[in-house]
Amino acid sequence: MSAAAPAGPTTVRRATDADLAQVGQVTAHAYVADGLVEADHWYVDELRDTAARAAAATVLVAVAPAVDGAPAERVVGTITLAAPGSPYAEIARDGEVELRMLAVDPAARRSGVAEQLVVAALREAVGRGDRRVVLSTLETMHAAHRLYARLGFVAAPERDWTDELTMRVHAWHAPAAPSARTESATWPPLRVVEVDGWRVGLSGGVTRRASSTLALRDVEDVADTVGRVERLYRDDGAPAVFRVGDPGNPAGLAAVLDARGYAVAAVTDVLVRDLDATVRPADGDPGTLGGGLCVRGTDVPDDGWLDLWLGGKGGAREPSRAIVTGAPARYLTATGADGTAVAVIRAAVVDDWVALSCLQVVPSARRRGIGRALTLHALAAAWEHGARRAFLQVEADNDVACRLYGALGFRPAHRYAYRVQPGHDVRTGC
Ligand SMILES: CC(C)(COP(=O)(O)OP(=O)(O)OC[C@H]1O[C@@H](n2cnc3c(N)ncnc32)[C@H](O)[C@@H]1OP(=O)(O)O)[C@@H](O)C(=O)NCCC(=O)NCCS
């Protein structure tokens, strides 16, 4: 049974029990429809048995919204991540995770669902601390080969293997992430206090990045250090926020925060890509964006730039200005023919890295290629300023932004979570 083509944005998330029957159907249907396996082959039962798969591995699903009175969400694709030594791993070694059973409903193909699934799987793998991802394909899976190559997988012929058929192995290595200190240097807190070697960022709660603690080394008594950090935030009039998931975090940090009731306020992916001289604005002109739009770049953000970034929340303009101007950066604004600003982005160069942030397109101008074009402009400007690598932080559930950045060649390098003291929230921003 085939579903109709997706009517709206497709999102990727972990499968729930309620999805499993549909996941089994989609997987089996996709393989049989492509002639990869005969409908009566034993492997079709394995493809359908998603309960067993979900118990032994991580199953992701791509879900599309309803069409014509169908259930609220429809599974249109799936992928499985298997740990080495687990029942669904065929080739994974220590430090690797293996992708299995990528399947997209034939009716939902040619719309980027497979790419969304594989990229989500890479982000999931990196988030679990796996730096290498492997998979096996059949020689005949040409569409899949093109996709894997585009995403940076390389053939590993020395690991090819034969069962009934010859399987070709491809491997992906997570790119290096900027250090937490490099990230922080592109978005510095208003004030930093060191507590037992932890860097406590204090900015009155304005933006998580500038109002959080980097706990990058072991301490004698984690609970005691956390308590002293909390007092600093209380004096700053803001909730305590800790970044968790960074190399160097003390082993007991998450448990101490759990015991104190800290919630996960956001899971953030760090995406990176290399730059080269070919990064150019689409029409090659740094002053225009195409479609009759112009681009203006400044070294300080004006009120219009800040207001567009903040989405019209004028109240937070001043503390936000102080934070974004804490590091040298370029502030790009896309404007229409009448001079109205429609999009902004910030590019801060530190060493050979450029950090992109604050990308915002006004809702009425979205889906016209402006986000993509402005990001390319920012990368080109950064190249001129000496940057050779780019990174950005994006909330893991921001599917739209993740798709945009994936299409621009950004790949997952790191994942961390912000944990916030109970009873508070923190004003966000970027
Ligand atoms: C994310 C954002 C900047 C995209 O801006 P945009 O101008 O609409 O994006 P573009 O038109 O350039 O789209 C480029 C690609 O992004 C993806 N994309 C953009 N909007 C999408 C949507 N609603 N659904 C699915 N994919 C989408 C697509 O891959 C698209 O390519 P395609 O048009 O060839 O399919 C915009 O949605 C926005 O301002 N969101 C709120 C702020 C935000 O999330 N910023 C990012 C913070 S890290």
In words, what does this structure look like?
Residues 10-172, 293-430 form the N-acetyltransferase domain. There is one protein chain. Helix 1 runs antiparallel to helix 2. The chain has helices at residues 20-33, 42-48, 50-56, 113-127, 142-150, 180-185, 222-236, 253-259, 303-309, 317-324, 370-384, 399-407, and strands spanning 11-14, 58-65, 73-82, 96-104, 132-138, 154-155, 161-162, 166-173, 191-195, 198-202, 213-214, 241-244, 263-274, 288-290, 293-298, 330-335, 341-350, 353-361, 389-395, 411-420. Helices cover 28% and strands 30% of the residues. With 430 residues, it is of the alpha+beta class. The protein is globular. A twelve-stranded mixed beta sheet has the order 9-10-11-12-20-13-19-18-17-16-15-14, with helices on both faces. The protein has three domains: 11-173, 3-Layer(aba) Sandwich (Aminopeptidase); 181-265, no CATH class; 276-387, Aminopeptidase, CATH 3.40.630.30. Coenzyme A binds at residues 9, 359-361, 366-372, 394, 398, 400-401, 403-404, 407.
CATH architecture title of the largest domain: 3-Layer(aba) Sandwich
Low-confidence stretches: 1-6
In total, how many domains does the architecture comprise?
A: 3
Largest sheet: 12 strands, mixed
CATH class of the largest domain: Alpha Beta
User: Which structural class do the helices and strands define?
Assistant: alpha+beta
- CATH topology of the largest domain, by name, is Aminopeptidase
- Separation of the first and last Cα atoms: 43 Å
Strands in their spatial order, largest beta sheet: 9-10-11-12-20-13-19-18-17-16-15-14
Overall body shape: globular
The percent range for strand residues is 25-35%
The strand count comes to: 20
As a percent range, the share of helical residues equals 25-40%
Mean pLDDT: 91
Number of helices: 12
Radius of gyration: 23 Å
Bound molecules: coenzyme A
- Fourth CATH level, the homologous superfamily of the largest domain: Gcn5-related N-acetyltransferase (GNAT)
